[in-house]
Amino acid sequence: MATKSLKKQKNKLADANRQLEILSSGIFEDELPTFKDKVSQTHQFPLRPKGLEILQINLGYMCNQVCEHCHVDAGPDRKEIMTKETMQQCLEVIQTTGAHTLDLTGGAPEMNPLFRWFVEEASKVGIKDFIVRSNLTIIRANKKYHDLPDFFKQYNVHVVSSMPHWTRRKTDKQRGVGVFDKSIKALQELNERGFGMPSSDLRLDLVYNPSGAFLPSDQASMERDFKKALLEDFNIHFHSLFVITNLPISRFLDYLIASDNYEDYMYNLVDAYNPAAVENVMCRNTISISWDGWLYDCDFNQMLGLKVASKVKHISDYNEEVLNDRNIITSQHCYGCTAGAGSSCQGSVT
Amino acid sequence: MSKTYYDPADLRNFGKITDWSEELGEKFFDYYGKVFEEGALTAREKSLIALAVSHVVKCPYCIDAYTQDGLKRGITKEEMMEAVHAGAAIESGATLVHGVQMMKKYDKLSH
Ligand code: SF4
Ligand code: SF4
């Protein structure tokens, strides 16, 4: 596992423009079709929103982990954190939005010092599905986070957590030594509060993304394998498994290039292109808000610095009607969302 | 023509064998697809069998494909290596069991 973010390492790939340059040159000049060309073949270009369902708010890039594949380039050395002023602007938007789901992400959103205040305020609005993407180890990282399972329960938060594998070795390789044991402990604590238990309303879903340069298998069979292994070995329950494809950006792009897997990976993504998945890519029902209040089609475009192509670009000017009338910005990283059964923060899309 | 007999990029073009014999190619791929669907055996179990056989027939394309397939399915490296040993054991057993034939022939020909 890395110990520093690309930004801290002063790695050239910390620059979003450099990533976009790589994704638009080389094999995409003569060997493989660009995403635009591919989508145009089935007359699905440009991608347009279908109606907002999910507001995804990134509370900051700080994280207690430095996972190898992280598309956020998050880590303890990242200082970007949402301020109270921006949170207040978000709360105003949450009051009036047509979205039924609020999705808090990061980094580790819990590391924002105003996280609990924000959850309390946001939950007053009575949004239908209130997701917090929690990396599990944060609960065990420091005493001040130990009561997070109770806090989540108090506000009926829907917990979505990453779990790269049901074996210690694979998990620790991707996310760091000790991550597996801490995650298991955290899952047991969540189960004790009722999260993830069969027929419980306290939702606990897990996210799986491959720990290497390969695409994930189908969600139903992965879920079956995860459930069986976690139940047999640790008596752990959870509701659904979301299978997510790694997108070729940020640290995962760095890994692909360094391990000489970039071209094969892009070939695999293009080969697995599925026009049916294009219909349901998450940018069509999501707005992603960054820690500093800028608006994006999705969390990936946020990391690539691709702001929405709309007159409204910032939370301070938020207008859902205007935002819904926009073209979505795409590039070759989008092939990650349309491979096989498709991929989104909610898992497969077909 | 490339300078080596095997080119990893050829695997991507496997489907093109239908270009020169459409009917047979398509029949093969239909059959192939059907074989690897979930059935009495899970797709995961079939993937491990395919990996073992890939080694026995020593096909680098198949080893490439079924190592990736195993990773996709969350199959661990220990499971993969055990499958390869299962294949190797049968292969060496198949060689060694012919030793009985040798022994019989030897005994028949000599006093
Ligand atoms: S826990 Fe999530 S945000 Fe943090 S480094 Fe890992 S992948 Fe990135
Ligand atoms: S990367 Fe973002 S913009 Fe591209 S298809 Fe996926 S969700 Fe849409």
TrEMBL record, chain A:
The keyword Iron applies. Residues 57-196 form the Radical SAM core domain. Keywords: Iron, Iron-sulfur, Metal-binding, S-adenosyl-L-methionine. InterPro entries: Aldolase_TIM, ArsS-like_C, rSAM, rSAM_ArsS-like, rSAM_sf. It holds the Pfam family DUF3641. Its cofactor is [4Fe-4S] cluster. CDD domains: Radical_SAM. This is Arsenosugar biosynthesis radical SAM protein ArsS. It comes from Mesonia profundi. The gene is arsS.
Automatic annotation (TrEMBL), chain B:
Residues 23-103 form the Carboxymuconolactone decarboxylase-like domain. SUPFAM superfamilies: AhpD-like. Pfam families: CMD (PF02627). It comes from the Bacteria. NCBIfam families: ahpD_dom, perox_w_seleSAM. PANTHER family: ALKYL HYDROPEROXIDE REDUCTASE AHPD, BLR3452 PROTEIN. This is Arsenosugar biosynthesis-associated peroxidase-like protein. It comes from Mesonia profundi.
